């Protein structure tokens, strides 16, 4: 079996792991933006939930308690965003940026106050984190050329949150496009006045959208610190919330297209990591700074040149003021 094939499989495997927090954050943003709320605060919710999840898992010795705590922290920030932008009709962009700044500063302060460490939590050991799962049949299929490697390296060997991320996408599609709640959600993002005239609560629907988004962001943040890594580190989200927003636009607010965009951006990041130390004949080793910046540069190029026209919900970023 060629080295190129093995390298490709390992790169795809890394892409799967990298794209998980992007999927959760993008699905969270999808609910928010479909309801007419721009959620710039995805980055802050990912960061805060990652910190709280790692802290709780370290203290209580359970990744599940860490997951619940991370979801709770994310929901709290989501409700703060809702309180500012829905109840008090504040600027949604400003509110989201404030959440990002709050999370960035608060995680640093709390790591110092709780663990006496600057920007990190204690390392999670053994069962304190989510561990990889070996799927049934690996030993049997492993003897089959190509398929055995794909099943062992690419499909099996992930933790439960990875499988949950990919399973949640069809659920989101079903909720948004096949349920009464989804119909109302899309309606309130396009024409909140019509929804209000029909006797439905615009604020209630938007709060529910943010609540669901907070839960999803909480899972994504918990994955970063209790599954993908074994501790929280300073600014560990590394712009994941903003990349999720880019994937949301690139996928034109459709769950499956957003999933494809998340995987594409994750693949670019995984590929950039693989390029570290690679020497190009006549050029030399690729600079680390260029490798680190490559996924973000390519993201801008893709959004600028290949997305076409992306039209957000008509009521996006517009607070609804009920007419008396």
Describe this structure as you would to a colleague.
Helices cover 69% and strands 1% of the residues. It has 324 residues and is an all-alpha fold. It has one domain (3-305): ABC transporter involved in vitamin B12 uptake, BtuC (Orthogonal Bundle), CATH 1.10.3470. It has a two-stranded antiparallel sheet. Helix 3 packs antiparallel against helix 4. The chain is globular and about 65 Å long.
Number of domains: 1
Tell me the strand percentage band: under 5%
Helix share bin = 55-70%
Radius of gyration over C-alpha positions, nearest whole angstrom? 21 Å
**DSSP helical segment count:** 13
State the end-to-end distance: 72 Å
How much is the average pLDDT? 88
Query: Regions with pLDDT < 50 over 5+ consecutive residues?
Result: none
CATH second-level architecture: Orthogonal Bundle
Number of strands: 2
User: What is the helix/strand order?
Assistant: HHHHHHHHHHHHEEH
